[in-house]
Amino acid sequence: MYDVSEVLPAKIGSWALFLDVDGTLIDIAATPDSVEVPPSLPHEISQLAARLGGALALVSGRSIASIDALFKPCRFAAAGLHGAELRSTLDGSVKRIPVNDTDLDDARRELDDLVRTWPGIIIEDKGISLAVHYRQAEAAHGEVDQRVSDLLSELGPNWVRQDGKMVVEIRPSGTSKGEALIRLMAHPPFQGRLPIAIGDDITDEAMFGYVNEVGGRSVKVGTGDSKAQFTVGTPDNVRKWIAKISATV
Q1: Which of 16, 19, 50 is nearest to 192 (CA)?
Q2: Is 20 a catalytic residue?
Q3: DSSP output for 122-160
């Protein structure tokens, strides 16, 4: 594994930076609502975004509203819900892909039944996607896998499965973090820059694939197979790099 400063350019003014949130900027917690953001981190990311002329975006499976709540009072360009939501500048409006979210009503009922069977399971309802977290009910993995597969068969081609660390999500088709980067890179302040993507999970592989294709740099946080060019240890390594480079004049 590398130190982040060894694999990323010391002078980043001409680059665009895309950062995953959970497992990359902040440590993964037992539940999505129990994560902790170090007090200095939002300001340090804001300083770094300013050095990049605003070409920094947080790219997450969380909604943009959830991202904003975590990092308040700071705001950033962002892609939420694996690219189903997009805000291309920190003060821009949020654009959401159109979906028939009532398709998920039956899925909600089915997954509520799963929670009754396995009390440790948490259903995260994101409005246009449903995430099944089984970190606190690992023995339920097989049943979660089967239930989600069955639900997707019923929902049809407009919905797809997204696996992650101890989570399976039903989300709209045609969205991914890679697609989000392509859309962001087409507009200022990202346009014309080379991208850097840092992430930790399966959901970030689409980012890495795109970044590699266009000559950028891709960095995976943690262990495991990946398309990323480089691997670093923990979110703390990423946070220390951000603190150091954000303070550099």
Answers
A1: 16
A2: yes
A3: EEEE-SS-EEEE-TT-GGGHHHHHHHHHHHHHHH-TTEE
Spell out the domains of the chain, with CATH numbers in brackets. 4-97+175-246 (3.40.50.1000), 101-172 (3.30.70.1020)
Q: How far is CA 172 from CA 37, 55, 161, in A?
A: 28, 26, 9
- Pick the catalytic residue from 3, 20, 22, 105: 20
Q: Is the pLDDT of residue 172 over 80?
A: yes
Instruction: Report the run of H or E that residue 232 belongs to, with start and end.
Output: strand 230-232
Are 35 and 22 contacting, i.e. CB atoms less than 8 angstroms apart? yes
Nearest to 144 by CA among 176, 182, 117, 184: 117
> Per-residue pLDDT tens for 94-152?
999 888 778 888 889 889 888 888 989 999 998 889 999 999 999 999 999 999 999 99
> The whole model's pTM is what?
0.90
Tens of pLDDT, residues 217-241: 999 999 999 999 999 999 999 999 9
39-68 as b/e: b if 16+ CB within 10 A: eebbebbbbbbebbebbbbbbbbbbbebbb
Which of 11-20, 93-102, 185-194 is predicted most confidently? 185-194
Contact between residue 43 and residue 82 where contact means Cβ atoms under 8 Å apart: no
Say if residues 78 and 57 touch (Cβ distance below 8 Å). Answer: yes
Burial of 110 (0-12, 13-18, 19+ CB in 10 A): middle
